[in-house]
Amino acid sequence: MTETFANTALPVRTERLTLRKATEADTEAVRSYRQHSDVSMWMPSDGLDADAFRSRFCEPAKLDGKLVIERDGAIIGDIMVAIADGWAQDEVRERAQNVQAELGWCLAPSAQGRGFALEAMTEVLRICFTDLGLRRVTAGCFADNEPSWRLMERLHMRRENHTVRESLHRTLGWLDGFEYALLADEWAERTATTDPQ
């Protein structure tokens, strides 16, 4: 298995944040904010079972593609970059290997509403398209999770799919889902035309 961030000089620093590879030692810090009801509401696991959370978080394949977001030395969030193959016909399958990634993110409640997710994910897009050489990234969420899909739109990702009552939520039942995507050439065009601030 190729290490996800092998071609990325980590940690990387943005204006206010540090992004670095997650380690097993980060498990409890991440679980502490993932248990918060405003966060766990939208996450695959509520994080209440410490052993189950540790097992999932520390699974080598998942840990390999996970970053943590630090502000002033404290972990305030985590990011998933799950690299995958694109769909391809048999004769060109090898050209579609490891060319895209699914992205996911989670931010501690105390860090929300201050632009940290946008800042971190802007850097993650740079890593995906520049360092990792990916051609496409995707992200999905429950349609009711407005902060998540609003962030995708601020990142200039395109809504490609709206599923109807396709995603089962632990307390809300069957909900609609959104899928967003961004291509490397779209990202390159946007960053080339963005005025420095």
UniProtKB/TrEMBL annotation:
GO terms for molecular function: acyltransferase activity, transferring groups other than amino-acyl groups. Gene3D superfamilies: 3.40.630.30. Keywords: Transferase. It comes from the Bacteria. The keyword Transferase applies. Pfam families: Acetyltransf_3. InterPro entries: Acyl_CoA_acyltransferase (IPR016181), GNAT_dom (IPR000182), N-acetyltransferase (IPR051531). Residues 17-185 form the N-acetyltransferase domain. This is RimJ/RimL family protein N-acetyltransferase.
